[in-house]
TrEMBL record:
The active site is at D7, E68, D141. Mg(2+) 2 binds at E68. Binds 2 Mg(2+) ion per subunit. Coiled coil: none annotated. The gene is ruvC. The keyword Lipid biosynthesis does not apply. It comes from Amycolatopsis silviterrae. Belongs to the RuvC family. Homodimer which binds Holliday junction (HJ) DNA. The HJ becomes 2-fold symmetrical on binding to RuvC with unstacked arms; it has a different conformation from HJ DNA in complex with RuvA. In the full resolvosome a probable DNA-RuvA(4)-RuvB(12)-RuvC(2) complex forms which resolves the HJ. Its main location: cytoplasm. Its cofactor is Mg(2+). This is Crossover junction endodeoxyribonuclease RuvC.
Amino acid sequence: MRVLGVDPGLTRCGLGVVDGGKGRSVRPVAVGVVRTPADQDLSQRLLGIADEVERWLDRYRPEAVAVERVFAQHNVRTAMGTAQAGGVVALSAARRGLPVVFHTPSEVKAAVTGSGRADKAQVTTMVMRLLGLEVKPHPADAADALALAICHLWREPMRVRLAEAEARAAELVRAHKARLAAAAKAAGTTKKQNETGARR
């Protein structure tokens, strides 16, 4: 599976494409950063991000898109910009019928380093090791985008299997309740018939 990982942001939006193979093998395909000037109108900044994401979707044709979820930030303005950029990415992917999954920073860190409290340097080091990169992706947004793609490749199959298991369990519960209801109805009908026959 090929995944486009996106570390959203208005000033810098990290993009990384990773191919997943058998087991947990991963291979880098492309990495980069979309930059928009802070003095530009918000709508134009979002358009710039959308246009570049569209180009990446056309060029690399990922099968899924993984976006970092805005979890918590002290700067509300920064959080808003990050969320808006993430929304633009999700919209571009959705228009192509691509699945979009949002991963929290702690999920990404845990998947890549084994610790949800890892810092950016640790994430970058592990990304380089996992993908066999000799040069550090720069800036950190680029490394984070690759980490998001890796996280998705490793977590999504498990999430799908869990969802399928939950769906099967729910169906079994529904079927069991239906059988109980049918049995109760049949028992009630038999009892009523017996009472009617006794009165006769």
